[in-house]
Write a structure and sequence with these properties.
By secondary structure, the protein is of the alpha+beta class. Helix content is about 15%, strand content about 40%. The chain has ten helices and 33 strands. The strands form six sheets. The chain has a ten-stranded mixed β-sheet with strand order 1-2-4-3-5-6-9-10-11-12, sandwiched between helices. Strands 26, 27, 28, 29, 30, 31, 32 and 33 form an eight-stranded antiparallel β-sheet that branches. Strands 13, 14, 15, 18, 21, 24 and 25 form a seven-stranded antiparallel β-sheet that branches. Strand 13 (about 330-340) and strand 14 (about 340-345) form a beta hairpin. It holds the Pfam family PepX_C.
C-alpha cells in the first residue's frame, strides 16, 4: 500500500507551544492512528527504528504519528522531567489533536518501548477519550520499584548513568531546516538543561514524586486493552505479568528472549513484532474479530542454560503459554536455607555475609540493549566465589520456574545501613553459572519503601526479597544456586560502609514458583522476524564497542566501556549525526566510599556549511555522608569549533539511608 510521509508538521498547544510530529499516512482515507511520543528526536535519534515500524503499520492502514516531547528534538518549549505533568498533559492534547484530523477516524492507539511504553500506560491511566488501546514494551507499573533509579530501596548506578545520558541528549539542537530560531532555542536548552540525576536522587523513598506516573496506584484507572511485551535480557521484566494479573480490561503479556529493543531488531533472537502489533490494533482500533482477546494471558520464552557471555548471542529454550495468570500450573516449593545448601525443614545457627565491594563485575550492563555489544551477564562463577552460596544437590529431574522467586529471611547487621543482594543461578555440571534472576534490598527498607528505618546493630529483623520475574528450566544434573552478597557493583551503588549481615537460619527460606504441566497449550509464539524496511542511511563511521576491566596501582577495580554509535547521513534530509560515549566505573574492594562513576558523551551534527558539536562530562562519587555529582558541558559551532558555551554544575546530596 502506498504511504505518504510528512517529514514535519506542527501540533499547536493551547499555550502556543508547538510540538513537532512526523506522520506516515496510508492512502485509503480516514484510518485509526498509532502514536509514539518520545524525547529521543524523530529527526535523527529514532529515525532508523521508526523506518522499521511506522512505515509497516501505515502499510497496514494505520496513520502513524511520531511526536517529540516538549523541549526535545524539534519541539518547542522547555523539557522539565521524565513523565512530568507537562508531558502527560501535552500527551492528552496530542491524542485529541490526532483524533480530530481528517486522516484519522477518531480511534488512537499508543505504542512505545521504555519511555514510550511508560507514557503509554500513564496516558491510559488518565483516560483521554480517543485512546482505545496500548502496546507497552519494556515499561514499568511502579516508577520507584522498577525503573533505573532504585531497586528494593537501593540506589542504582544507572540513576546517574541515565541522568548523564539525558543531560547529553537534552543539549542537542533543533534542526535548522525545521526551526528558523534553532540557535536561540539551542542556547536556552544549553543554559536550562535539568540536572535530573541530582533531582531524582533527592527522592530516596517512595514518595509522591514516584507515585505520580505509577499505574499500580490504581489498576482500575486503565480502561483500554493493553499488550505488554519485554525480553528476559531486558531490565524491565516485572510489568507484563503484573499488568495481566491486575488489570480488569483485556490484557496480554509476551516475554521473549530479547534485550531492550523492539523484538524485530533484537540482536539475540529477532521475532515478528509487526504481526503482534498489527493484530492487537486490528482488534481494538478496527474492531476486527481476529481472536486477540482469546490469546493466552501470558506467552513467554522458557530459557535454559547456555554458555553465558557478555557478547550478543542466541538463547536456549522454548516458547510456552499460560491461558491464565496467575497460573494453576505454578505452585510454591519451599527450600529452607542450611549452611552451604538447602533442607526440607528449618535449621538452626547463623551464616555471616560480608562481600568485597567489587562483586558484580559479571552482572552485565543494567539494561542490555542500550550499548552496541559486550553488555550481557557472563559466567557468574567469579561473583559466586565472593558470595555466600546455597546449592541444591544435582537435580534428579528437570525443574521449571515461572514467576518471582522469594527469599524470606531473618537477619541482623553490624552497621545501621546495609544491603543484601540475592542472585539465583543455574550451575551446569561443568561449573558454569548462569544468572536466572536477581534483586537487591536496602535492609533499612525491610518494612517499607515509604518509611525506612535506621537499623540497630545486633537486633534481629525479618525481611523478604521478591526476585525479578523469571522463566527458566534447569536440566537434570544441574544445580540451583542462591548467591547472597552485601554489594553488587556496578549495578547497585554500595552502602556507605563495609558491613556484615548475619542470617539466622531458623527463619530463612527460598520460595520457588515451580511450574508443572501435563499438557502444554499452543504457545502462539511470535514467528521469525519478517523482512521490513530500513533507513537507507549513508554510513560514514561504523559502530564499535569495547569493554575492559583493570586494576590500578592503588588497588581500584575499574570497568571501562566505550560505545561508538557511528556517524551517518540521513537520506531524507542530509543531516549527518555522529555520537559516542565512554563510561568508567571504579571501586576499591575494601572501601565502598571509593565508588565512582564517570561518563563522557560526544555529539556532532552537520549539514553543508552548518556544524555543531557537543561534549558532556559527568561524575558521581561519594563518602559516608554525601553523594557528589558534577557535570560539564561544552558546545561549539562551525568547522573552526567556535565555543558557544562552556558550563559546569556541582551538587551535593546527603545520603540519608542509602
Amino acid at each position: 500500500m502506498p504511504v505518504q510521509t510528512i517529514e514535519n508538521t506542527w501540533i499547536t498547544l493551547s499555550d502556543g507551544r508547538r510540538l513537532a510530529a512526523r506522520i506516515w499516512l496510508p492512502d485509503t482515507g480516514p484510518a485509526p492512528a498509532i502514536l509514539e511520543y518520545l524525547p529521543y528526536r524523530k529527526r535523527d535519534g529514532t529515525a532508523p527504528r521508526d523506518e522499521t515500524t511506522h512505515r509497516v503499520f501505515a502499510e497496514a492502514n494505520y496513520a502513524c504519528v511520531r511526536v517529540d516531547i516538549a523541549g526535545t528534538g524539534d519541539s518547542e518549549g522547555q523539557f522539565d522531567d521524565e513523565y512530568s505533568e507537562q508531558e502527560l498533559r501535552d500527551g492528552e492534547k496530542v491524542i485529541a489533536w490526532i483524533a480530530a484530523q481528517d486522516w484519522c477516524d477518531g480511534h488512537v492507539g499508543m505504542i512505545g518501548i521504555s519511555w514510550g511504553g511508560f507514557n503509554g500506560l500513564q496516558l491510559a491511566f488518565r483516560r483521554p477519550p480517543a485512546l482505545k488501546a496500548v502496546i507497552s514494551v519494556a515499561s514499568t507499573v511502579d516508577r520507584y520499584a522498577d525503573d533505573i533509579h532504585f531497586m528494593g530501596g537501593c540506589l542504582l548506578s544507572d540513576n546517574m548513568n541515565w541522568g548523564s545520558q539525558m543531560f547529553a541528549y537534552l543539549t542537542r539542537p533543533a534542526d535548522p531546516d525545521i526551526r528558523a530560531n534553532w540557535r536561540e532555542d539551542w542556547l536556552a536548552r544549553l543554559q536550562n538543561v535539568p540536572f535530573s540525576a541530582a533531582d531524582w536522587l533527592r527522592h530516596q523513598t517512595r514518595d509522591s514524586y514516584w507515585r505520580h506516573g505509577s499505574v499500580c496506584e490504581d489498576w482500575s484507572a486503565i480502561q483500554v486493552p493493553v499488550l505488554a511485551i519485554t525480553g528476559w535480557a531486558d531490565a524491565y521484566v516485572n510489568a507484563p505479568p503484573a499488568l495481566v494479573e491486575n488489570l480488569t480490561v483485556p490484557t496480554k503479556a509476551v516475554i521473549g528472549p530479547w534485550e531492550h529493543r523492539y523484538a524485530h531488531i533484537s540482536k539475540l533472537d529477532p521475532a515478528d513484532f509487526h504481526s503482534e502489533v498489527i493484530g492487537w490494533f486490528d482488534r481494538w482500533l478496527k474492531g476486527q474479530e481476529n481472536g486477540a482477546e482469546d490469546l493466552p494471558a501470558y506467552r513467554t520464552y522458557m530459557q535454559e542454560h547456555f554458555n553465558p557471555t557478555p557478547q550478543n548471542g542466541p538463547r536456549q529454550g522454548r516458547w510456552i503459554a499460560e491461558a491464565n495468570w496467575p497460573s494453576p500450573h505454578v505452585q510454591e516449593q519451599i527450600l529452607h536455607l542450611a549452611p552451604g545448601g538447602f533442607s526440607e525443614g528449618p535449621n538452626t545457627g547463623s551464616v555471616a555475609i560480608a562481600s568485597p565491594c567489587h562483586i558484580g563485575l559479571q552482572s552485565g550492563y543494567f539494561c542490555a540493549g542500550m550499548r552496541i555489544d559486550n553488555e550481557l551477564p557472563g559466567d557468574q562463577s567469579s561473583d559466586d566465589a565472593m558470595s555466600v552460596c546455597f546449592d541444591s544437590a544435582p537435580l534428579q529431574a528437570p525443574l521449571e520456574l515461572l514467576g518471582r522467586v522469594k527469599l524470606k529471611f531473618q537477619f541482623s547487621v553490624d552497621r545501621p545501613v546495609a544491603q543484601l543482594v540475592a542472585r539465583l543461578c543455574d550451575v551446569s555440571s561443568e561449573g558454569i553459572s548462569q544468572r536466572i534472576s536477581y534483586r537487591s534490598l536496602n535492609l533499612c527498607h525491610y518494612r517499607s519503601h515509604e518509611t525506612p528505618e535506621t537499623l540497630r546493630p545486633g537486633e534481629i529483623y525479618e525481611a523478604e526479597i521478591a526476585l525479578n520475574e523469571c522463566a527458566h528450566r534447569l536440566r537434570e544434573g544441574h544445580v540451583l544456586r542462591l548467591a547472597l552478597s552485601t554489594s553488587y557493583w556496578p549495578i547497585v551503588w554500595p552502602a556507605p560502609n563495609a558491613v556484615e549481615v548475619t542470617l539466622h537460619l531458623q527463619d530463612c527460606s527460598l520460595h520457588l514458583p515451580v511450574r508443572e504441566v501435563m499438557h502444554e497449550i499452543q504457545a502462539s509464539e511470535p514467528s521469525r522476524a519478517q523482512d521490513y524496511p530500513v533507513l537507507d542511511a549513508e554510513q560514514l563511521r561504523s559502530p564499535a564497542s569495547q569493554s575492559e576491566q583493570i586494576e590500578t596501582e592503588d588497588g581500584q577495580i575499574v570497568l571501562k566501556t566505550f560505545d561508538d554509535y557511528g556517524k551517518s547521513r540521513d537520506p531524507y534530509h542530509d543531516l549527518i549525526v555522529g555520537s559516542d560515549v565512554r563510561m568508567h566505573y571504579g571501586i576499591h574492594p575494601g572501601d565502598p566510599s571509593t565508588a565512582c562513576f564517570e561518563t563522557a558523551w560526544n555529539f556532532t551534527f552537520e549539514r553543508e556549511d552548518w556544524q555543531v558539536a557537543i561534549s558532556t562530562r559527568c561524575r558521581m562519587s561519594c563518602d559516608t555522608q554525601n553523594f557528589y555529582l558534577y557535570r560539564q558541558l561544552r558546545a561549539t559551532e562551525g568547522a573552526d569549533e567556535i565555543e558557544v558555551l562552556t558550563k559546569e554544575w556541582s551538587e551535593t546530596v546527603p545520603r540519608g539511608l542509602l
